[in-house]
Amino acid sequence: MSEKNREGKRNARERLAVERQKQKAADKRRRTLIVGASVVCVLALATVVGVLAANAGKSGKSGASGPAIAPSGATGKGALAIPVGKGSAKSTLTVWEDFRCPACRAFETAYRPTIHQLVDAGRLKVEYRLVTLIDGNLGGSGSRSAANAAACAQDAGKFSSYHDVLYDNQPKETQDTYADNAKLIELSGKVGGLDGPAFQKCVKDGTHDSWVVKSNDAFQSARFSGTPTVLLDGKNLFEDRTMTPAKLKQMVEAAGKS
After folding, report:
1. What is d(CA 88, CA 37) in angstroms, rounded to the nearest whole number?
2. 124, 152, 139: which is closest to 211 by C-alpha?
3. In angstroms, what CA-CA distances link 115 with 44, 107, 166, 216, 238?
């Protein structure tokens, strides 16, 4: 075989290798877009469910009475936000969520690693606001009871870890599993140092139930359309239909440099 022919074959192999790499990159981009679009679609569906839930929940009785006792460290108007992260972070993510809401879990699954990374780096602080839309829509009290338990975990300085455990073990939306205080206490065993007399009493007594109701009232008064509602520095994150965890990270990092 002549040198010219060998050179031609080598060039052909190199071109083929380049094309394969381009195809792999295109496939990766496509998969990323599909995942992002899937999350957005789930969240859009939650918006519809949330509207029904909000309307249904307005007329129902909360089942909670007594003063609204905010958990330790709660901030904002009415002390309705549970803060996570450094106060010096330049960006604030506000998350209105319901522990029975499957779309909230979908958001957690997709965005949690990025949120944790940005919080740990001191670039983002998160304000969690707890609501009870699914209770209002489907009946039961699991949304409120889980939110109360999360507030009890905040009292113990374990909110973030317990928050994640609740989503990792979320029952089906139609099953009011979290109405069972024994289940909420059982799950606290997955968080080191949380399961103890103080936490158990707080859960069983419903110490923060009225505070949860007050938080849900604030959500409805704000006329948000469903859960999760996620705001980055006051702007609804999912009005941008191209939003992904990577894009959120870019936005937060850009804000930190400004």
Report:
1. 32
2. 152
3. 21, 11, 17, 24, 15
Position 34 scores a pLDDT of 33
Tell me the CA distances in angstroms from 40 to 45, 54, 72, 103, one per residue in order.
9, 20, 33, 10
Tell how far CA 206 is from the center of its chain. Answer: 23
Mean pLDDT to the nearest integer, 8-16: 63
Tokens 């022919």: give the residue.
5
Cα–Cα nearest to 144, from 97, 200, 212, 199: 212
pLDDT digits (tens, 9 = 90+) for 109-122: 999 999 999 999 99
Per-residue pLDDT, 217: 97
5 half-sphere exposure, CB direction, 13 A CA radius: 2
Span 43-63, pLDDT tens digits: 433 443 343 333 334 433 445
DSSP 44: H
Q: How far apart are CA 146 and CA 153, in angstroms?
A: 10
Q: Are 167 and 173 in contact (CB under 8 A)?
A: no
Return the H-helix or E-strand segment holding 20.
Answer: helix 3-58
Nearest to 208 by CA among 148, 153, 144, 135: 148
Handedness of CA 96, 100, 101, 102 (dihedral sign): positive
Q: Is the dihedral of CA 247, 251, 252, 254 positive or negative?
A: positive
Cα separation, 50 vs 6, in Å, equals: 66
How far is the C-alpha of 243 from the C-alpha of 38, rounded, in Å?
A: 11
> What DSSP designation does 74 have?
-
